[in-house]
């Protein structure tokens, strides 16, 4: 890491979803003036970025790069937030795999979501925002976590009857939030940023 990292500056990193060696197709400049570009997904709060890359660097899909603050960028020369619809088809098809990897790498964070999820309103619980989790599964999770917090996805599916693939449920919800900007509740996308704004 870098010195700035160690003094507490928040360095935002992203995973490259698509690398376009010849720049973005909607960049009207002549070919020689375009820099390599692509799309990336923030590793912490799953924001999507359109990025321009240093032309001397060769990158592969799945590489991790620093996007913020600008002083920390080594390979990225520009980064702008975009919506799901702005992604290339290559980036869209890569998205689910990258999100699944990030969820797996940070398993504890997402297991803790199952441990810590709270009611949003009298009728709606955070757990009900997850695809396929209705009243029965929600109650099963709540009852089990009272006894003892969950420590892994595997333990979640062993202890909660009917809860298969708790990690895939999280991935599905993140993809849902990325695709539909108008969802009333954003559980994972942009959460890190919202917490820092408070």
Written account of the structure:
- Pfam families: DUF655.
- InterPro entries: DUF655 (IPR007003), NA-bd_OB-fold (IPR012340).
- This is Adenosine deaminase.
- With 198 residues, this protein is an alpha+beta fold.
- The longest helix has 17 residues.
- It has 2 domains: 71 residues, Nucleic acid-binding proteins (OB fold (Dihydrolipoamide Acetyltransferase, E2P), Beta Barrel), CATH 2.40.50; 103 residues, AF1531-like domain (DNA polymerase, domain 1, Orthogonal Bundle).
- β2 and β3 form a beta hairpin.
- It is elongated.
- The protein has a 5-stranded antiparallel beta sheet.
- It contains 7 helices and 5 strands; from the N terminus they run αβββββαααααα.
- Helix content is 36%, strand content 16%.
- The relative contact order is 0.13.
List the helices and strands and how they pair.
Blueprint: H1 3-6, E1 12-20, E2 37-42, E3 48-53, E4 64-68, E5 76-81, H2 89-105, H3 107-116, H4 135-147, H5 153-159, H6 166-179, H7 191-197
Antiparallel strand pairs: 1-2, 1-4, 2-3, 3-5
CATH 2nd-level architecture of the largest domain = Orthogonal Bundle
From the alpha carbons, calculate the radius of gyration and give it in angstroms. Answer: 19 Å
Task: Output the number of helix runs.
Answer: 7
What is the strand arrangement across the widest sheet?
A: 4-1-2-3-5
What is the 3D shape?
A: elongated
The count of domains is: 2
By CATH, the topology of the largest domain is DNA polymerase, domain 1
DSSP strand tally: 5
CATH class categorisation of the largest domain: Mainly Alpha
- What's the end-to-end separation, in Å? 28 Å
């Amino acid at each position: 890491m870098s010195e700035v990292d160690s003094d507490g500056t928040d360095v935002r990193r992203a995973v490259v979803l698509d690398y376009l060696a010849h720049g973005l197709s909607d960049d009207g400049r002549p070919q020689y003036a375009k820099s390599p570009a692509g799309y990336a997904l923030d590793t912490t709060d799953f924001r999507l970025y359109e990025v321009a890359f240093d032309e001397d660097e060769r990158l592969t899909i799945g590489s991790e790069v620093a996007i913020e603050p600008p002083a920390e960028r080594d390979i990225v020369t520009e980064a702008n937030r975009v919506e799901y619809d702005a992604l290339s088809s290559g980036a869209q098809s890569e998205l689910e795999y990258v999100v699944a990897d990030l969820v797996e790498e940070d398993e504890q964070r997402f297991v803790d979501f199952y441990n810590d999820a709270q009611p949003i309103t009298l009728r709606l619980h955070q757990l009900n925002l997850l695809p396929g989790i209705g009243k029965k599964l929600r109650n099963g999770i709540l009852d089990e976590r009272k006894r003892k917090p969950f420590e892994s996805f595997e333990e979640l599916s062993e202890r909660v009857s009917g809860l298969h693939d708790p990690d895939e449920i999280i991935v599905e919800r993140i993809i849902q939030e990325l695709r539909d900007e108008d969802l009333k509740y954003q559980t994972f996308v942009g959460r890190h940023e919202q917490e820092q704004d408070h």
